[in-house]
Amino acid sequence: MQQLDTTQPNFARDFTRVVEERRDADSDVAGVVQDILRTVRTGKDDALVKYTQRFDGYSLIDDADWVITAERCKEAFDALDAEQRDALQLAANRIRSYHEAQLPKNRDYTDAIGARLGAIWRPVDAAGLYVPGGRAAYPSSLLMNAIPARVAGVERLVVVTPTPKGNSNPLVLAAAHIAGVDEIWRVGGAQAVGALAYGTDRIKPVDVVVGPGNAYVAEAKRQLYGVIGIDMVAGPSEILVVADGKNDPDWIAADLLSQAEHDPTSQSILITDDAGFAALVADRVDVQISQLATQKTARQSWDDHGVIIVVNDMEAEAPDLINALAAEHLELAIDDPEAMMGKVRHAGSIFLGRMTPEAVGDYVAGPNHVLPTGRRARFSSGLSVLDFMKRTSFIQLDEASFGAIGPAAATLAHAEGLPAHAKSVELRLK
Amino acid sequence: MQQLDTTQPNFARDFTRVVEERRDADSDVAGVVQDILRTVRTGKDDALVKYTQRFDGYSLIDDADWVITAERCKEAFDALDAEQRDALQLAANRIRSYHEAQLPKNRDYTDAIGARLGAIWRPVDAAGLYVPGGRAAYPSSLLMNAIPARVAGVERLVVVTPTPKGNSNPLVLAAAHIAGVDEIWRVGGAQAVGALAYGTDRIKPVDVVVGPGNAYVAEAKRQLYGVIGIDMVAGPSEILVVADGKNDPDWIAADLLSQAEHDPTSQSILITDDAGFAALVADRVDVQISQLATQKTARQSWDDHGVIIVVNDMEAEAPDLINALAAEHLELAIDDPEAMMGKVRHAGSIFLGRMTPEAVGDYVAGPNHVLPTGRRARFSSGLSVLDFMKRTSFIQLDEASFGAIGPAAATLAHAEGLPAHAKSVELRLK
């Protein structure tokens, strides 16, 4: 962890270094992914068999080896203890409610010259959802990705997930049952993303692929962007907590660690105007880490990427720091979070006040937990139903409205050196 | 041009070939672009000087060589003849009106358990707009890209454009004056996109880059996606005209040619249920091509990529063909275009009826002419104000609402093996 103070002479330089630090894995995955995608495109199911054996130690032989059935998901759901089942169901219901209100409205109107104009939103035909295997197999992520697709009206919702040595996570299967997934294929990695984009013998292609994954999965999505739609380029998670000295240092320490425990490359940053409080939080972070089952990850994340920034004047200094960091999660644990939110231009999601820890947003609040990382909140948004929909504009003219604007179109077409454009208008003007 | 008939035994095979044909340039631009971007990132202005000399034959020496000033744009506007000025102004006004109604609404509500939830839309801070030099320097494209950014509320709107041997297009400068562009830099190609993404000594970085360009520009945008937001991966333009035998074959021929004249890789397709009409249109296309100043391009496009499909039963057969092609532009020159539109799932923009040639949509109708190509209408939309905005969700709980959903969050955190998540909730529940 490094501590900065805005009154230090080197603050600007040190803060810029924090802002510009790249925490994404810089390994040479691009070439490997390119090979895998090319192989899957031509080799189809055979290529999936080969890669799944190699990377997951799992044999795809009979048809039944390829899929996890709806019955199996239902069994996993029925086997949950009541507390977990109720929690998942509460999460699903709240996520659904929040996202239903995101559904965009169509437009259809006739303007002053009599031109009918509009736009129609429709869901994509099919969406693919990547669900990681192993440590990062989160039922909450399945709900956050699948429910917006269902709300959007996507007819075919396909999950791909690696099942290392045949193992799958029953909580994830239960979540798939709740969300209502149509197909689950036991393939993972870049090869699974390639299968969804190009289609294979067994797997029909989809239009959009979403969901978290490792560096190979992320790179496969990036390379296939344009062949398919994707949710976003995702990086390690991050939290920025803005807290005054009136907070319980234990609460804030736990909030910082709730991101640090995700991944060694995750980042937790505290901005406070109370140096004494900063010291208390740093102390509580160290104590809490030692009690965590995730301590190894959290320790490395906090040591390597944790930052505490002490400011002189919260109101005057925090907004610029917040906007420069453009964090995925922003907690405002201060007296007047509303005023501060008014000055925030860039953040994935904002958690207002002392009783809104980021973790409630990960699970049950309702808004999506798939959010832009790595300062991408400057230009991108969290996952929503819009990621599973597209808009078709339309135009309808009659003789009068065509007569009103056609001549200007012909003028511009000639000016641009496009005579066939002009002719298609002029023939109708005669 | 190839003609297909749905009654032919090989129709399914031939049609699939049309659908799957890739018309994008397949040259090896990726490596070249990667080099250019790396060089611009480290070499900054010096790299731009070098590439601009090499590719555009233009020397960037003094500060004044780098920019086209607002005064110069104003002069270009003032020098327009009245007809062109009025046409550009009409286009700008209609584009602005259509896009103003796209502005999304913020959400802020308190739900049944007392949780305050919502989302705030904000413009990006800065947007870059690529404007091609040479043949494809279209004032209409500048308006279609710049006006939505302005409507979104983007504060800094930057144009980059190559000026080969120092030449620029006065109509484009006039359009920049009308749209209100803040900066115009005389750089182009992949190096200009790199400059916008990374920033150089003179050029401050932007958050989103939009606008058409050649294969190098498109590849640069694709490689930088994630560093910046981009509009889309664009390919050659295309039109699908669905026309019955009651149309004037000359009108339909001109409509087909209005896309063919754009580029040798553009595609024009006619679907009709009248074989005699198909023959008349094919004949008129040949006659009209010979009269075009753009005949070389149009000829090549029509010969290589033009398709006429004769169907037996328009109502029964056309919808599936339309949806498989997912065309950028779809003209419905039939008696009941409304009924057909109801069956269209995938299209960039639809032009309804016999008096709505696609060319009016290119210029003056109002909806955006930047539309998804290459079957990407299956999952993506035309350019809109949303491409220049992003959404921040927010959550605010009090003790009661936190008490209502906090326990479920803790249950799920434990189930996912994330104890710090659970702790940040449980500390507050005590």
From TrEMBL, chains A, B:
UniProt: substrate binding residues: 237, 259, 262, 329, 362, 416, 421
Cited Pfam families: Histidinol_dh
Coiled-coil zones: none
Binding, NAD(+): 130, 191, 214
Signal peptide: none
EC number per UniProt: 1.1.1.23
Chain positions recorded as Zn(2+) binding sites: 259, 262, 362, 421
PROSITE patterns reported for this sequence: HISOL_DEHYDROGENASE
Cofactor note: Binds 1 zinc ion per subunit.
Catalytic reactions of this protein: L-histidinol + 2 NAD(+) + H2O = L-histidine + 2 NADH + 3 H(+)
A Gene Ontology molecular function term of the record: NAD binding
GO BP: L-histidine biosynthetic process
Keyword Plastid: no
Active site feature: 328 (proton acceptor), 329 (proton acceptor)
Pathway assignment: Amino-acid biosynthesis; L-histidine biosynthesis; L-histidine from 5-phospho-alpha-D-ribose 1-diphosphate: step 9/9
Keyword hit for Lyase: no
Keyword annotations: Amino-acid biosynthesis, Histidine biosynthesis, Metal-binding, NAD, Oxidoreductase, Zinc
GO CC terms: cytosol
Family: Belongs to the histidinol dehydrogenase family.
Biological function: Catalyzes the sequential NAD-dependent oxidations of L-histidinol to L-histidinaldehyde and then to L-histidine.
Name the record gives this protein: Histidinol dehydrogenase
Gene name, Swiss-Prot/TrEMBL: hisD
